[in-house]
Design goal:
The complex is a heterodimer of chains A (about 425) and B (about 170). Chain A is of the alpha/beta class and about 425 residues long. In chain A, strands 15-14-13-16-17 form a five-stranded parallel sheet. In chain A, strands 3-2-4-5 form a four-stranded parallel sheet, covered by helices on one side. Chain A has a four-stranded parallel sheet with strand order 9-8-7-10. In chain A, helix 6 runs parallel beside helix 8. The longest helix of chain A has 17 residues. In chain B, about 35% of the residues lie in helices and about 20% in strands. In chain B, strand 3, helix 5 and strand 4 form a beta-alpha-beta unit. The chains are: A alpha/beta (about 425), B alpha/beta (about 170).
Amino acid sequence: MGMTIAEKILAFHAGKEEVKPGEIINAKVDIALGNDITAPIAIKALREMGVEKVFDPDRVVLVPDHFTPNKDIKSAQQCKMLREFAREQGLTYYFEVGSVGIEHALLPEQGIVVPGDLVIGADSHTCTYGALGAFATGVGSTDLAAAMITGEIWLRVPESILFVYTGKRGRWVTGKDMILETIGRIGVDGARYMAMEFVGEAITDLPMEERLTMSNMAIEAGGKTGIIPPDKETLEFANARAKRPYEVFSSDEDAHYARVVEIDVSSLEPVVALPHLPENVKPVSELPEITIDQVVIGSCTNGRIRDLRQAAEILKGNRVHPNVRLIIIPATQKIYHQAMTEGLFDVFLSAGAAISTPTCGPCLGGHMGVLAEGERAVATTNRNFVGRMGHPKSEVYLASPYVAAASAVAGRIAHPEEVI
Amino acid sequence: MIEGKAWVFGDHIDTDVIIPARYLNTSDPEELGRHCMEDADPDFAKKIVKGDIIVAGENFGCGSSREHAPIAIKAAGISCVIAKSFARIFYRNSFNMGLPILESPEAVEGIKEGDVVRVDLSTGTIENVSSGKSFKAVPIPPFMQELLEVGGLMPYVARKMGLEVRR
């Protein structure tokens, strides 16, 4: 029996010829990642065990991105803990404010994660790297601690679900709409404990940045990873930045899937996920008038240069509605710089948007745009749970950069065509 | 043996509800425990008595990988969580840091808020003392059983590496 790409990567890292779903394996990790919220617990655990050295200073990556630049004294203490640990251990990949970006935008951009990797990260959106043809999954701080010490992780080999995307996308349909539609169809636990594999002509057509958006939200369907087998696009992206040699894996013809889901993207429209679950997906065209107070364009889901260009396409020559605060957050310093040189900042500033330094900030209600009671936001982020962006009685609507920018102009959730 | 009063929640209780991100600027268990389930029930941490049990629907703990979620539940005084199903990362985290969790759709259907529930972790037996009904939890995989027996992932790693955990 053949294996899926997920099974092959796991087998390779477990030093086995073959693995089967349900089997528990011990596998070597290529990268173990932590951030300013999750790493402190892991560092404490290492200290308690009297561990003096991490398994490999090139492979333990610390990215203080959530509450940075430090939003309060406690956050500053947590970041200080990461900084001191990174210095003491001589970590190659620790990023200080000024070079830091949102982890899941930063690691692919810097070529720290490469195709074929097994990556564990103490952050649920670690699944983003699946877009590179890596097996990447979110874990907790204790799992991170164990991997930092041993360089290994225990994993249950997941069943895989194959998602086949056919057809050609319409003008305003992005990877974000494709993944929201997918979550809408299978539900927030539709891929619980499973690997999601995305294939088909509409994936081949999708640029890397929008693939990263799709893999990023696999966790929103409960997925363990959201993997895209490498193709020309992947190799071009990887070759331009890979910090290490890499291995390319692909699924066998006779690989077994627990389920196959087919989605014809030519019939899709721009969609939003209504509060309070990412599965509450509706086409923008079917919504009643929903007025909004804030729009956030950024995050590990949609804060890359292509996302900012899409937002600028809509905002050019337009003004943000007087009742709306538009906050744009380039996900990394490189993206920030690029957006500035390309003239996107002129468009944003002329439209009346605020531009922030890279941070996860408002996505999880941390800082830089927290919502008050009764407020409503459209965000290009990944979760719209109760209280996610602030007050428990605030609301978050998830959308693509096109829809988010159009809504900022209209003052209500709007289709891009309404404002362009 | 665990015994406590049941607090019942619905499906898809996410980690933002279990412990809102606004409190993640610390990993102090006591402080996290004070805000446990705050956005679902602002007085939850005050109302519960040590040993009480959370009973919930499908996909409990979905969302973020924050281990602060099981830490907050445990520190609040909850002795165990019984759900129809658990989200994957929360499931791992609970075993790794030592919060007992049990999967049992039947038990969840058969327990009302306020019922007194008795749990035998070694056999996976869940007894609704108030109604007199008994249920079985989905068995824990052997490897997870081993983790529980040594007291979580860190002691497991310590044993493997010949280290000692200092707490």
